[in-house]
Amino acid sequence: MPATYEAALQELEQLVGALESGQLPLDELLGSYRRGAALLEFCRGKLQAVEDQIKVLDAGNLKAWTTE
Questions:
Q1: What is the domain count for the chain?
Q2: Could you list the residue range(s) of the whole structural domain that residue 13 is in?
Q3: Cellular location of this protein (predicted)?
Q4: What pTM, to 2 d.p., does this model score?
Q5: With b meaning 16 or more CB within 10 Å and e meaning fewer, what string describes 10-28?
């Protein structure tokens, strides 16, 4: 797996582009799909870990994220 969420996301975006292009040979298509599914699970796990940490920091009350 990639070292960071950002690296996983970048690879996932590249895989999606390749899959959507329709240019992958059939034998690579399934492998790329599996890799994409693994990357997606990795990203979801990282996001869940961050959300869990935020809940702890906010004493269990998850607050809406604002940029203001």
A1: 1
A2: 5-57
A3: Cytoplasm
A4: 0.74
A5: ebbeebeeeeeeeebeeee
